[in-house]
Specification:
The complex is a heterodimer. Chain A is α/β, with parallel strands linked by helices. Chain A folds into 2 domains: 279 residues, Rossmann fold; 68 residues, no CATH class. Chain A has 13 helices and 17 strands. Chain A is globular and about 60 Å long. Chain B starts with 19 loop residues before the first helix and ends in a 13-residue tail after the last helix. Chain B is mainly α. The radius of gyration of chain B is 21 Å and the shape is globular. Chain B is 55% helix and 0% strand. Classes of the chains: A alpha/beta, B mainly alpha. Chains A and B meet through strand 15, strand 16, helix 9, helix 12 and helix 13 of A and helix 1 of B.
C-alpha cells in the first residue's frame, strides 16, 4: 500500500507504547473546575452567569462574543464561586469561571439531542457547531464553525479529518478512533453536510492499523475514505496533511480554504458526533497523561476545567521529582511550572519528563551540517533564521521567509549543536509582528 | 502544588541523540580503516605521523582556547578529526615535525582565528596540508612505495624515494598497475589516500548514517568520471589514484566549509570535480584535490545564496 506523505520532516521515537493499548478511563468528577473564557482562538467568551449562581452540567455559562468566538458550558454541576483571572497555559492570568461542584451525584445533564441529521440544513449545522462550543481539539483550538463559513468566492471541496497524531507520546486520538469511531463518523457526516461536500477523508498514520480498521468498519457504506499516512513528523500539521491527502499546497500566509480544504481533528469530529447524537456540548475531552515521570500513564476522559494537579494525582502522581511538565505533545506543547492549570478544549495531554530526560540548556555554534535544512517541511533555511535571529537581524530573517514558519520544531529536534532554533524563530517572529503593529 | 523546581524551556522538548560530538567521533571511526590501511602498507612510521598530528591538533585547540579565555571544546572531537584528516594527506614517511606544525597551523590559523568550530571558511586540515606543502615542498613530495616486507619505523631517511602514482603519470611514465592492487591501496601516495577499499567502507558508513550528504561525493566523483571520458583519461585510474576518494567523502563533505542547501552541495561537488580534473590535466601539480576543495570552500557563501530553496507554499514578495 502506498502511504501518503509530505516532503522532508523527521522521525522522532514515538514514546507511545506506555499508553497506546490502554482503554480510555473516565476521570471521577473533580471537586472544582476552572473554565477560562479564552480557550479558543478569537474573542474571549462573555460570562452570562454571576458568582453564586447554581449551574448544571452542560448549561451555557458564557456566550460567544462575535463571529470568531465560542460559548462555554459548565462542565460540572454546582455553584459559580468566582469569575476572576486564573493561571492559564499561556503563562498569563486569564479571566475564568470557577465552579465548585455539589456532591449531588450523579451529575445530571442539562442537554437535549438536536433534530436528526437528515432534518438539519447546512446553515443549522454550522450554527450547532457554534452552540456546541466546538474548537479544534488538536491543539490550536480554532472555532470550528468559522471554517465552515468560507469567505465569499471560496468553496469547500475537501473535508479532511486529522487522525495522524504525529506528536510523540500522545495516544488519545488513537484510542478515540479505536473506541469511538462511530461518533467520529457521525460528526464527519454532519461536517460534510455543513460543507455541502460529498465525500470525507480521514488521514491516519499507518502505525495505528486498529484505528484504521475501526474507522473503516464505522464508515462502511458511507462516503468516507481512510487515508493511511506515512509515520513522520509533522504529518498532522494542517498544511502537510492537506498536501499528503490532496496534493494541494496552501500558500504561505493563507488559510486552508484558499485551496478548498477544511481540516478538523478527529476529536473535534467525535465531539460534534456526540453532540448530534445526544446534545452534549463540548464539556469533556480525551487526554493522554504519560511520560517517565508519571506513575500510572493513562488515556483519560476529563471534564474541561479539571486542574492538571487532579489529573496527575489520579494517575498515581510523579515517579520522582519531575524534570519538565508539558501540556500537549513534546514537539509543540508548552512547558509549565505550576499544576493549577485547567485542561482546556485544545489540551491534548500532559507529558512529564524526568530530570535525566531534560537537556542542559547550553548549546553550541551552528556547524552548518544542514540537518535542519533537510528536516524543514516548509523547505526553509532554519540555520539562517537561527543565526540572524540570535542577533536580532530582523530584515534578513524576514527576507528568508521566517513568517512562513509554522513552528513544528523539526529543526530544533535535529540540531546536533542543540541550538534552540524554534525559540529563536518564535522570538524573531514576535518582534517582527510587534514592529509591524507599531510601524 | 509543585514542591520542586522544574525546567521551563521552549519546545521541542525532545532532541535527537545525534550530537555534534557524536558526529565527530563517527567521522573518526569512518577514517579508521583508511588509517589502518596506511599503517599496513607504509609501516609503523605512519602511525607516529597520525599520533603526532592528532595530538598536536587537540593540544593546539585547547591551548588557543585557554589563551583566548574561551571554553575548551576538545571534547567535541572536531580537532581530533582535523588532526586525523591532515595526517592521512601527508607522505607516509614525513619527518614528525611536519604533522606537529601542520596540525597546529590548521587549528590555530585555519580554525581558531575565525572563532572556532562553525566559523572557519576553509577546511582546516587542507589549510594545514597547503601550509606544509608551501613551506616544505621537498619533504612533502617524497613518497614511498609500500614495502613487500614490512619495514617498520622506516622514515624518509631510510626509504627509497619515489613519486606518487599520479606523479608518475604526470611525468609521462606509463603506470600499469592491476586494478585490484590500486583498489586495495598497495601503491605510492599519501598515508591514508591509497586504499579505495578502506575509504569506500568509511564513506559508505557515513552515508548510511546520513552523516554526510550523498550529493557532494556523487557530484564530485561523477564529474571526475565524466571529464575523464571527455579528456581521454582512464576514469578508473583517475578515481583510484591520488586523494580523490579521501577528498570526496571526507574533505568536501566537511559541514562548516560547504553549502547547506541540497542544490548548493551538488554544485559544490561538481565544482570540485571540475577543478580537480583541470589541475590534474593542465596544472603544475600532479594532484588537485586539496586546492580544488579549498577553492570551492571560498565559493560556499555564494553557492548558499544562489541556491536558496523555494519554500513550501512560498508567495512571491508581498506588498
Amino acid at each position: 500500500m502506498r502511504l501518503r506523505t509530505f516532503k522532508k520532516g523527521i522521525h522522532p521515537p514515538g514514546y507511545k507504547e506506555r499508553t497506546a493499548s490502554l482503554p480510555v478511563e473516565v476521570l471521577p468528577l473533580p471537586r472544582q473546575v476552572v473554565l477560562p473564557l479564552r480557550q479558543h482562538i478569537g474573542a474571549p467568551a462573555e460570562p452570562i452567569v454571576k458568582v453564586g449562581d447554581a449551574v448544571v452540567t452542560g448549561q451555557k455559562i458564557a456566550e460567544a462574543n462575535g463571529k470568531v468566538s465560542l460559548p462555554l458550558h459548565a462542565s460540572i454541576s454546582g455553584k459559580v464561586v468566582a469569575i476572576e483571572p486564573r493561571p492559564h497555559v499561556s503563562g498569563a492570568l486569564v479571566p475564568a469561571i470557577v465552579i465548585e461542584g455539589d456532591s449531588a451525584e450523579p451529575d445530571v445533564p442539562a442537554w437535549q439531542a438536536p433534530p436528526r441529521l437528515e432534518e438539519l440544513s447546512a446553515g443549522q449545522l454550522i450554527e450547532l457547531m457554534k452552540e456546541a462550543g466546538l474548537a479544534g481539539m488538536g491543539g490550536a483550538a480554532f472555532p470550528t464553525h468559522v471554517k465552515y463559513d468560507p469567505p465569499p468566492g471560496k468553496k469547500i471541496e475537501y473535508v479532511l479529518l486529522n487522525g495522524a497524531e504525529c506528536e510523540p507520546y500522545l495516544t488519545c486520538d488513537h484510542r478515540l478512533m479505536v473506541e469511538r469511531a462511530d461518533d467520529i463518523i457521525l460528526g464527519l457526516m454532519g461536517m460534510l453536510k455543513a460543507a455541502q461536500v460529498s465525500k470525507g477523508l480521514i488521514g491516519v498514520e499507518a502505525n495505528k492499523p486498529d484505528a484504521v480498521a475501526a474507522l473503516e468498519k464505522a464508515a462502511s457504506g458511507l462516503p468516507v475514505e481512510i487515508l493511511p499516512l506515512k509515520v513522520k513528523y509533522p504529518q498532522g500539521e494542517e498544511r502537510m496533511l492537506i498536501y499528503a491527502a490532496t496534493g494541494r499546497v496552501v500558500p504561505a500566509g493563507a488559510l486552508p480554504i484558499e485551496v478548498g480544504a477544511v481540516v478538523n481533528n478527529v476529536a473535534t469530529a467525535a465531539a460534534f458526533g456526540e453532540y448530534l447524537r445526544t446534545g452534549k456540548p463540548l464539556i469533556s475531552r480525551l487526554i493522554t497523561v504519560t511520560g517517565a515521570g508519571i506513575k500510572n500513564p493513562k488515556n483519560l476522559e476529563v471534564r474541561l476545567g479539571t486542574l492538571v494537579e487532579d489529573v496527575i494525582n489520579y494517575c498515581g502522581g510523579f515517579t520522582e521529582p519531575p524534570g519538565r511538565i508539558i501540556l500537549g505533545g513534546p514537539m509543540t506543547g508548552p512547558a509549565q511550572y505550576r499544576l493549577d492549570l485547567p485542561i482546556m478544549k485544545g489540551t491534548s495531554g500532559i507529558v512529564v519528563q524526568t530530570r535525566a530526560e531534560v537537556d542542559k540548556p547550553d548549546y553550541g555554534p551552528c556547524i552548518r551540517c544542514g540537518k535542519c535544512v533537510d528536516a524543514c517541511p516548509y523547505n526553509a533555511l532554519p540555520n539562517i533564521f537561527g543565526l540572524y535571529a540570535e542577533y536580532d537581524r530582523l530584515p534578513e530573517v524576514e527576507k528568508y521567509g521566517i513568517l512562513d514558519c509554522r513552528e513544528c520544531g523539526s529543526c530544533a529536534y535535529v540540531c546536533p549543536s542543540r541550538r534552540p532554533l524554534l525559540q529563536l524563530i518564535k522570538d524573531a517572529k514576535r518582534k517582527i509582528m510587534a514592529s509591524r503593529k507599531n510601524g | 502544588m509543585l514542591e520542586t523546581e522544574v525546567v521551563v524551556s521552549a519546545s521541542p522538548h525532545i532532541r535527537t541523540g545525534l550530537t555534534t560530538e557524536r558526529i565527530m567521533w563517527m567521522v573518526v571511526i569512518a577514517l579508521l580503516p583508511a588509517a589502518f590501511a596506511g599503517v599496513i602498507f607504509f609501516g609503523g612510521w605512519s602511525l607516529l605521523v597520525i599520533l603526532c598530528s592528532v595530538l598536536s591538533a587537540v593540544l593546539t585547540e585547547a591551548a588557543v582556547e585557554i589563551l583566548l579565555k574561551r571554553p575548551v571544546t576538545v571534547k567535541d572531537g572536531s580537532a581530533a578529526v582535523t588532526g586525523l584528516l591532515l595526517a592521512l594527506t601527508l607522505p607516509p614517511t614525513v619527518p614528525l615535525l611536519l604533522p606537529v606544525l601542520g596540525a597546529a597551523f590548521a587549528i590555530a590559523i585555519g580554525k581558531q582565528v575565525f572563532g572556532g568550530l562553525g566559523f572557519n571558511p576553509l577546511n582546516p586540515a587542507l589549510i594545514g596540508r597547503a601550509f606544509l606543502l608551501a613551506s616544505w615542498p621537498d619533504l612533502m613530495t617524497r613518497w614511498k612505495w609500500p614495502a613487500s616486507s614490512l619495514a617498520w619505523l622506516e622514515s624518509q631517511a631510510d626509504a627509497v624515494a619515489s613519486a606518487t602514482v599520479l606523479g608518475l603519470a604526470k611525468e609521462g611514465t606509463a603506470v600499469q598497475l592491476p586494478v585490484l592492487q590500486m583498489f586495495l591501496g598497495k601503491m605510492s601516495g599519501s598515508l591514508g589516500e591509497t586504499s579505495a577499499l578502506a575509504l569506500l567502507a568509511g564513506g559508505l558508513f557515513l552515508l548510511a548514517y546520513q552523516i554526510i550528504d550523498w550529493r557532494i561525493p556523487t557530484g564530485y566523483l561523477g564529474t571526475v568520471i565524466l571529464l575523464s571520458f571527455l579528456m581521454g583519461e582512464n576514469p578508473l585510474f583517475q578515481l583510484l589514484a591520488g586523494g580523490l576518494l579521501l577528498g570526496a567523502f571526507f574533505m568536501a563533505t566537511d559541514y562548516v566549509t560547504t553549502p547547506v542547501t541540497p542544490k548548493g552541495r551538488l554544485l559544490f561537488g561538481i565544482g570540485c570535480g571540475l577543478l580537480t580534473m583541470l589541475i590534474r590535466k593542465y596544472g603544475g601539480f600532479p594532484e588537485g584535490v586539496c586546492y580544488s576543495i579549498l577553492l570551492m570552500n571560498v565559493t560556499t557563501p555564494l553557492l548558499d545564496r544562489w541556491t536558496v530553496p523555494k519554500r513550501f507554499g512560498e508567495v512571491k514578495a508581498r506588498g
